């Protein structure tokens, strides 16, 4: 028995379906590969853009932090200066209070001295009034006796 060979260019339906399926699969693979490549490129672009956004945002945050640090150091310096001024004012108020106390003490002493002097002047006034009334009651003095008394009063040094 002899096996018959198939004719050389025989196209049957199965072969055509297989060839169309193979072409469709190759075309589908190419479409999928192009689509995936495009998606990967889009994701890579988004990733690069997002990383750039993070870098820019980090730079902004660092700049803001630096400005806050500058403001904080300026506020600390102002706080130290304000504390110094407050200490200086406290010292000044204390000195002023002490001066006020010493001045009020001196004023009280002056008032006491003034009152004593006023009472002394009042006593001297009463004595002078008594002397005047006594002189007015006594006979008039001669001028010669008053001249000796007057020269004694006008002399710079006691004799």
Ordered list of secondary-structure elements with their pairings:
Layout (H helix, E strand, L loop, with lengths): L12 H125 L5 H12 L5
Keywords: Coiled coil, Membrane, Transmembrane, Transmembrane helix
Structure report:
- The chain has 159 residues and is mostly helical.
- It has a domain at 22-103.
- The protein is built from 2 helices and no strands.
- The chain has helices at 13-137, 143-154.
- The longest helix is centred in the middle third of the chain and has 125 residues, at 13-137.
- It starts with 12 loop residues before the first helix and ends in a 5-residue tail after the last helix.
- The relative contact order is 0.02.
- The model has no long low-confidence stretch (mean pLDDT 88).
- Keywords: Coiled coil, Membrane, Transmembrane, Transmembrane helix.
Q: Element order, helices and strands?
A: HH
Q: Share of helix among residues?
A: over 70%
**Rg to the nearest angstrom?**
62 Å
Shape call = rod-shaped
Count the E strands: 0
Task: Outline the low-pLDDT stretches.
Answer: none
Query: On the 0-100 scale, what is the average pLDDT?
Result: 88
| Strand fraction | under 5%
Q: Kindly report how far apart the N and C termini lie.
A: 191 Å
Query: Oligomeric form of this entry?
Result: single chain
Instruction: Summarize the main sheet.
Output: none
The secondary structure category is: mainly alpha
Tell me the number of helical segments per DSSP (H or I, 4 or more residues long): 2
């Amino acid at each position: 028995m002899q096996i018959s060979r198939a004719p050389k260019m025989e196209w049957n339906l199965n072969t055509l379906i297989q060839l169309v399926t193979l072409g469709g699969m190759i075309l589908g693979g190419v479409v999928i590969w192009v689509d995936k490549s495009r998606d990967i490129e889009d994701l890579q672009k988004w990733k690069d853009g997002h990383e750039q956004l993070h870098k820019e945002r980090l730079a902004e945050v660092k700049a803001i932090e630096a400005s806050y640090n500058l403001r904080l150091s300026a506020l600390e310096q102002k706080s130290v200066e304000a504390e110094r001024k407050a200490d200086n004012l406290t010292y000044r108020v204390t000195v002023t209070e002490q001066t006020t106390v010493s001045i009020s003490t001196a004023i009280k002493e002056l008032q006491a001295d003034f009152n004593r002097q006023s009472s002394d002047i009042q006593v001297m006034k009463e004595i002078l009034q008594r002397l005047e009334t006594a002189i007015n009651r006594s006979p008039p003095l001669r001028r010669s006796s008053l001249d000796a008394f007057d020269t004694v009063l006008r002399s710079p040094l006691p004799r």
